Amino acid sequence: MKLSTQILLAFTLIILLSVADSYTNYRLSKKVQLNSQFLSKSEAVIRNSNKTHRAILEMQSAVRGYFLTNDTTFLEEYHRGIKKVPEYLKEQRSLIGIDNTQRSIIDSITQLHMEWLAYTSELIRTRNDNPVVYQNLIDTKFKKHIGKNINDAISKKFKRFDKIEYKTRKYHSDMLLQSLANTRTFSLIFLSLTIFVGIASTAYIVIMITNRINSMVRVADTISKGKFTIVEDYRKDELSALSSSLNIMSRRLEKNIQELENKNAELNKFAYVVSHDLKAPLRGIYNVISWIEEDLSEELSPALKNYLNIIPKRTQRMEALINGLLDYARINRKTTPELVDTNIMVDEISQSIVPRKFKLEIINLPVIFTERLKLEQVFSNLISNAVKYSNPKNPRIEIKCEKIMNVFEFSIKDNGIGIDAEYHQKIFEIFQTLREKNEMESTGIGLAIVKKIIDEQGETINVQSKLGEGAQFTFTWRNTKAV
Q1: DSSP type of residue 428
Q2: pLDDT tens digit at each of 483 positions of the chain
């Protein structure tokens, strides 16, 4: 599966969780809204119920006051109630709707109230207009508590109405609280899931990409060290193309390096054979010149003798060049690393190269684990170079070492003729020399050998010098392994 597809799936899952969270919150918010609306309406219903019941009770009190005192002012509240109570009951019916228990209770209250109004209005009317009928009503209805029974029934109806309303109100209040709690719970759950999925998917993708890139980096590192391995990648995504390209590069490099090594081996063999075969004609030329000087010295003119003296010098220089080429060709040969005391090694080299008149200082040279032959070649050529270009009056050479982290920094310093800054890089090129071309010891190969060895070791070399002020060659070298 492609990385883009995996990332898209992760984002899709997060979006789906967000949509589910939004939808759940929407449904719960609708419930909260409905319960809140019901509670708000229920509050109006309770308030209207209390208001209606209070108005009916005030009408009842007004009628009792009138019958006890015969004061018509009590009837003012009664007449106001006749107008207000029907409005209150109508409002209540609009609040509670139809086809429910509450509506039937209100209808019962309305019917009882109408019966009470008919009863009381008849008593009030006959009290003044027809005392006989009034007395008959007193005897047949009033004394039998007809009005009181109606009032008690109305009060019971109101109590039952309020009880049902409070019970329903409590249910919806609990539902509201439950909806709010569910909203918080589901929001927390979906938020946690979204965060978890986001972090988990991000961590998975990052770790997967990092591990695969690290594996490619390790392969690239091993390739840089000459070990041509490949990346084992069975996924089919964007990074697979990179790993495939890296594998192709590794195989091509391996093939090219192998071909290059074969070519180098052939070239080294060719150089060795050619150099070896060239020595015989040179020795023949030198012998012929010697024979001519021995056998025909009296017959040679001074000019011819001078020319004959030049030829051995040129043949000796040619032989030196051939020997230098042989040394240059041998650089690629691998030798087994060993523990080397560079102080002893440099001392042995110096005894065979440095004349006794030189003042030689060897300071603080370490013991390291490395290829002895290559380090010997570096020191031999640098010390030989210091001897060749030394100050003839007071020659001095200083060899020392400093350890910087895990790297050894060697320096060979002389007080010779020095090197102009424009030649600091050229001197490391093959056949480049600061001496005359006819001088035997100046083949221009020594420093080229040093540079090639240093480069192959992955180290650095540089020169610090001014014309007439000597030169200091500094190069780095490392342990092949920890000692």
Answers
A1: G
A2: 666 777 788 778 888 888 888 888 888 888 888 888 888 888 999 999 999 999 999 988 888 888 778 888 888 998 999 999 999 999 988 988 887 888 899 999 999 989 888 888 877 778 777 777 777 767 666 666 777 888 889 999 999 989 988 888 888 888 888 888 888 888 888 888 888 888 888 888 788 778 778 877 777 777 776 677 777 766 666 667 777 777 787 788 778 777 877 777 776 676 666 666 666 676 777 677 777 767 776 777 777 777 777 777 667 666 666 666 666 666 666 678 899 999 999 999 998 889 989 999 999 899 999 988 889 889 998 999 899 888 888 899 999 999 988 899 999 999 998 888 877 778 887 655 555 444 445 566 788 888 988 988 889 999 998 888 899 999 999 987 654
pTM reported for the whole predicted model:
0.45
User: Residue 13 and residue 194: Cα distance in Å, rounded?
Assistant: 8
Count Cα neighbours of 163 within 13 Å in the Cβ-side half-sphere.
7
In one-letter notation, the amino acid at residue 457 is: Q
Phi, psi (rounded to 5 degrees) for 453: -65, -45
Q: Which residues pair with 361 in a beta bridge?
A: 398
Please report where in the chains the tokens 């000597």 appear, as a residue: 470
Backbone angles phi, psi at 21, to 5 degrees: -60, -45
How many C-beta atoms lie closer than 10 Å to residue 345's C-beta?
16
